[in-house]
Amino acid sequence: MPKVNLYATFRDLTGQSHLEVEGRTVGGVLENLVRAYPKLREELFEGEALAERVSVFLEGRDVRYLEGLSTPLSPEATLDLFPPVAGGAPEATFGALPPWLLEEYLVSWGGRKLGEGHYALPGAMVRFAEAEPLRVGSLSIPQLWVGVEGEEAEAWFNRIAFAASRGGG
Fold this sequence. Notes:
With 169 residues, this protein is of the alpha+beta class. Helix content is 26%, strand content 35%. It is built from five helices and twelve strands. The chain has helices at 9-14, 26-36, 41-44, 99-108, 153-165, and strands at 3-6, 18-20, 45-46, 49-50, 55-58, 61-62, 78-82, 91-95, 112-115, 118-121, 124-136, 139-149. Strands 2-1-7-5-6 form a five-stranded mixed beta sheet. A five-stranded antiparallel beta sheet has the order 8-12-11-10-9. Strands 3-4 form a two-stranded antiparallel sheet. Strand 5 and strand 6 (61-62) form a beta hairpin. The chain is globular, with a radius of gyration of 16 Å.
């Protein structure tokens, strides 16, 4: 049965941080989650569509760049559900910054892995996921979406942006 990791206000609404929820697609799992916790409906959906303000990652990849709510899930799949980042927390998409390199930076800076694409740093939480590649003609440049929240969000975000601007050097 797919595993669902809940963060921030989603934990508050369910009283849970991890759940196993039946479903063969992202949409199926979310619908079953809403059946068990009806208060989540208005947080997760706008009509029948996934709310723009919510981030849903499958194994670290934003489901919007997969097949959305129709994305198939294996019984061993892990979904991470993040509510909106409050207070204008910094976020950006960085080109040519591979996830493995960002993870190396985060660990070297004292980060602790909380889940796929989710790290805790002193005073901040970092989330990241592969984003739609930038395409210029036949050239395709991988991109990584990064969001940082917490008291020290701006300082950590600036450090990540500087590392990304150096091309990993």
